[in-house]
Specification:
This protein is α+β, with helices and mostly antiparallel strands. Helices cover about 50% and strands about 15% of the residues. The chain contains 12 helices and 10 strands. A 5-stranded mixed β-sheet has the order 1-3-8-5-6. A 5-stranded antiparallel β-sheet has the order 2-9-4-7-10, with helices on one face. β5 and β6 form a beta hairpin. The longest helix has 26 residues. Pfam families: HTH_18 (PF12833). InterPro entries: Homeodomain-like_sf, HTH_AraC, Tscrpt_reg_AraC-type_HTH. GO terms for molecular function: DNA-binding transcription factor activity; sequence-specific DNA binding. This is AraC family transcriptional regulator.
Length: about 300
């Protein structure tokens, strides 16, 4: 079994690259100033964001390779494992990295916001490809953080560093929004496949046998991470993936209600409800009518 190197502290990674640790909880790395290194598998105990300027080995997360090229940002959260394959050759990579430990965020508003930056849980083929202009913004943010790290640590240091990290992450959110737009054709193809899969699920026996469809099911079928899939659906439809699935389920229930050959209980079971009363409660919440009242409208 391949050895996975555990990096719990910022200094662990700095030492690996021969970089001085200026702050115990945050670091900016310019890879062109690092010693040649042959990476293996690394398990980060902190957040790590890499701006790759040239390809210098294939980055893997899990079993998949990152789709990256010049000007690509890749994100790792604590506990995630990164593997770089470069055929055992020591290389000097080109680009930059921002590392920050979760302890840096203690008692800050950013700690509560980190879950909103869903791109830390995107899959490898969902990396952020930035433009020349966006790259300039990224480097300016990193420079501000680095300038603050190089200052003498005082009572303002952590607050200013965290503020600039939050600014950087907010820019990344904006850039991902742009990427969703510029990949509109691809995204529409994904949505069409989602619509096909959803209809197939709802109008087959899967609904009765497996219960209500889950977001994770469609994400897996489309080879996307649940977070990326959910963000894509939200950007394209204005609804969360779960809301969209619920809407389609309720539309189907309205169709079935008018089949007088079946009782409301039978329809509830066909729609994947274990208990008919749950269906009646949800239906009334959605339409303002009980299933029987809705059936008698016409």
């Amino acid at each position: 079994m391949e050895k996975i190197e555990q990096l719990n502290k910022i200094s662990d990674y700095n030492d690996l690259l021969g970089v001085e640790t200026l702050h115990p909880l945050v670091s900016i790395i310019d890879f062109s100033k690092c010693k040649p290194v042959n990476h293996g598998s690394l398990n980060f105990g902190f957040y790590a964001i890499f701006l790759k300027d040239v390809k210098c080995g294939d980055i893997k997360y899990g079993k998949e390779y990152y789709d990256y090229q010049e000007g690509t940002l890749v994100f790792f959260a604590p506990g995630q494992i990164m593997k770089i394959e470069n055929n055992g050759i020591k290389v000097i990579p080109k680009g930059f990295a921002l590392l920050f430990h979760p302890d840096l965020l203690n008692r800050t508003s950013l700690a509560k916001e980190m879950n909103n930056f869903s791109f830390f849980s995107y899959e490898v083929h969902e990396a952020l490809h930035i433009s020349t202009r966006e790259r300039k913004v990224v480097l300016e943010c990193l420079e501000k953080i680095e300038d603050e790290i190089e200052q003498r640590i005082d009572k303002h240091s952590s607050k200013l560093v965290v503020s600039n990290i939050e600014l950087f992450l907010n820019y990344c959110t904006r850039f991902y929004d742009r990427q969703f737009i510029t990949r509109d054709t691809i995204n529409r193809g994904i949505l069409e496949k989602f619509e096909f899969l959803l209809n197939n699920y709802l109008y087959s026996d899967l609904l009765r046998k497996e219960g209500h469809p889950k977001v994770n099911y469609f994400a897996e079928e489309l080879h996307l991470s649940p977070n990326y899939f959910g963000d894509l659906v939200k950007k394209e439809t204005g609804k969360s993936a779960q809301e969209y699935i619920h809407l389609k389920l309720m539309n189907l229930s309205k169709e079935k209600i008018f089949d007088n050959s079946k009782s409301i209980n039978e329809i509830a079971y066909e729609l994947g409800f274990k208990y008919p009363q749950h269906f009646s409660r949800m239906f009334k919440k959605e339409t303002g009518f009980t299933p029987n009242e809705y059936r008698n409208l016409n």
